[in-house]
Amino acid sequence: MQEPMHQENSRNVTILVTGGTGTLGRLVVARLREADRQVRVLGRTAPATGIDGVEFAAADLESGEGVEAAMAGIEVVVHCAGSGTGDEGKARRLVEAAKLAGVRHIVYISVVGADRMPVVSATDRRMFGYFAEKAGAERVITESGIPWTSLRATQFHDLVFMVAEQMAKLPVVLLPRRMRVQPVDAGEVADRLVELALGAPAGLVPDLAGPRIYDAAEVMRGYLRATGRRRPIVRIGLPGGAARAMLGGANLSPDRAVGEHTWEEFLAERVGERVVV
Ligand SMILES: NC(=O)c1ccc[n+]([C@@H]2O[C@H](COP(=O)([O-])OP(=O)(O)OC[C@H]3O[C@@H](n4cnc5c(N)ncnc54)[C@H](OP(=O)(O)O)[C@@H]3O)[C@@H](O)[C@H]2O)c1
After folding, report:
1. Nearest-atom index, ligand 1, CA of 155
2. What kind of fold does domain 7-271 have according to CATH?
3. Is 83 close to ligand 1, i.e. is its CB under 6 Å away?
4. What are the extents of the domains in the chain?
5. Is the CB of 253 under 6 A from ligand 1?
6. Which atom of ligand 1 is nearest to the CA of 86?
7. Each residue of 76-133: pLDDT tens digit?
8. Is the CB of 23 under 6 A from ligand 1?
9. Could you tell me the pTM of the whole model?
10. Residue 229 contacts by C-beta under 8 Å, 6 or more apart in sequence?
């Protein structure tokens, strides 16, 4: 007799992707559709164009408005909604509604270093509060009683590119001394999240980090070269315990450099030319 199909693998289950309109969420939605899954996207702003097999549920995870309705009938959630602030609160709203709906599996995307950044002082919080919020969100999900899976990833190429773009608007680029990054491809993170969402709850799974660790100046120089800009780079010190942890490599996962798509390849695709860093 054939084994009964694991619930998560049933094609009849609609999977809720929070933040399904964002950088990562869009890629997750596309992959779930390729796997022939029905998808509901939870977000504040509906996308301009619809996708076949994807419904949109307007909801705000900060205020809680619409979250219960968006969760109705859902068994599996991939929680990609997030912002610079308030992710612990968003997770709380999500979990409250998920409990009412009888959700069987929440898959969460967190960040490498969430558990290693001592965000204690006001200075820490101003600069690195994001990491504390991600740790708080992890805790909310872990303690929810709902079976869960959490993946910590390093910074996506897209985010690093956006930050470089902002920094290059100034005549001088200021970069923290000793700052290193290990950018990862958001598509590879989406692949892994979908694999996890279609499997059984697995708890905290090994990190997903980019293939190489770079000094921040190296990454910036690659960006400047690719976009044909010239800017002097000045290194500055950062105060506080969280900064010390970050500069000591809390944001890196050298043993989990399993991403394959490099920053140089990303740059070449994004700006349409080959870059050698
Ligand atoms: N970017 C990185 O380098 C990185 C690295 C590791 C982990 N992560 C995590 O990965 C997740 C996705 O990141 P991303 O770069 O794809 O972010 P993003 O492009 O900024 O997308 C964020 C998504 O969250 C939704 N959202 C934000 N606030 C919301 C709210 N109050 N209620 C409902 N939806 C809300 C946004 O849609 P609306 O604005 O329409 O609501 C959007 O769809 C985040 O949790 C982030 O912390 C990111």
Report:
1. 3
2. Rossmann fold (3.40.50)
3. yes
4. 7-271
5. no
6. 31
7. 999 999 999 999 999 999 999 999 999 999 999 999 999 999 999 999 999 999 999 9
8. yes
9. 0.95
10. 168
